[in-house]
Design goal:
Number of strands: 5
Strand order of the largest sheet: 4-3-2-1-5
Shape: elongated
Strand content: 5-15%
Low-confidence stretches: 169-181, 193-198, 286-290, 302-320, 327-355, 359-371, 394-402
Mean pLDDT: 74
Order of helices and strands: HHHHHHHHHEEEHEE
Number of helices: 10
Helix content: 55-70%
Largest sheet: 5 strands, antiparallel
Radius of gyration: 54 Å
Structural class: mainly alpha
Length: 481
Amino acid sequence: MAELPMGKGVSAGKIASNVQKKITRAQEKVLQKLGKADETKDLAFEEGVINFNKQLVEGTKLQKDLRAYLTAVKAMHESSKHLYECLDDMYESDWYGRKDVDSLFEDSDLLWTDFHQKLVDHALISMDTYLGQFPDIKSRIAKRDRKLVDYDSARHNYAAVNKGKKKEGIKITKPASLLERAAPGWAQGILSAHNVAQTSLSRSQAEEELERAQKVFEEINIDLQEELPSLWNSRVGFYVNTFQSVAGLEEKFHREMGKINQNVNDTLEKLENQDTSSDRTQDANHMLSPGGPPAIPKSPSKLRPMVPPPPKVTPSKDMKQENIINLFGEAATPNISVTSPTQYDAPATANLLDMDLDSLQAATTPAAQTWDSWEATEKVAVTEEAVAETENETAQVTTESTESVEMPESFLFKVKAMHDYNANDSDELELKSGDVVLVLSYESPDDQDEGWLMGVRESDWIQHKVLGKRGVFPENFTQRM
């Protein structure tokens, strides 16, 4: 028969003893569950074990979540690093702040690395140390449970031996009378002495086993009675230190990272300003191509608006009228004497055959020199000047339309769409080439973006008399009328 393998220092007797202990414990647990044997109870200790298990579950979850947090920080570090590397690769060497950008990216990488390492040192290592004491205490609690079963078993065995001795004493008296009848007297004395010796030996062994089991149990029980409440109370200080460390490290990290991000933002703004200035200079030296629409400014209220195109050369309505009046006063009626209607010097640059003699006569007659006649003369001059412009028909129709249609209260001036414009957002105005738009003032000046105007198509206003269809449109797609 093959021998069972045994480790160093393990004998067959030791193995047999351990097997016997397991069998005895199993029998005792069965008797306790069946109610045939009482079980030693310690309610304070059982409450301490419940708290210990709860504390272990909470600590394990905290450790798991903290490790997941550190993994996320590491991943965020890598993502941030790749993002900055992408910008660094695209940042051309002759752009503003090239060296500053490189330095800021290095600072960002070092800050992420330092943040992760300090989280490990001040939070994760402390967490691992805190949970490191739980396995040993858990093992000692299990050992205490086993020793309690051994103690209860020894106690029950000792009680059974004492109970059996009393019963055995009663049984011996009866056979003794029988032996006295069947055996010599000397044999009866030997038999009685033997029974007494066996009973005393069993009782002594049971008492010794009980004392030994009680001693072992009480030693481990006393230690745990002191450690479990202390461990339970330590959780408050540990949780406070852990979360304070994480919160403090996060606060410092975000504060320093905010400074780096602000420096990056300032550098990019200066780069954008330089690029915008370059575009403005380029626009001033070059005309837009007549073959296609101009570039659309950036969407209003979403991105930083680009610098608007150079102002149009077409004069405004007020300027046009002022120039026309000056022209009328200087060219049309040079050196005319109101008091001497029949005497005047011939104009140096005008042909008398081309002049409107009726208008001239009305203007030089004292009796007709009233406000109404002067206003009628001015309108004639305005009409003649407008007819000389390229878009004379459009200007004439616009003048008549403005006089006959009531304009909105916020009306400023009119423009004409020179190119089609497809609206990209709900607040933008769709334009077709040739559309006339009534330009309106913004309700709040802060809402206006450079390069964009607010308005409503003249046809929509004439038809509905409401501003529900108003919207914003790029100024450089239109021409002021």
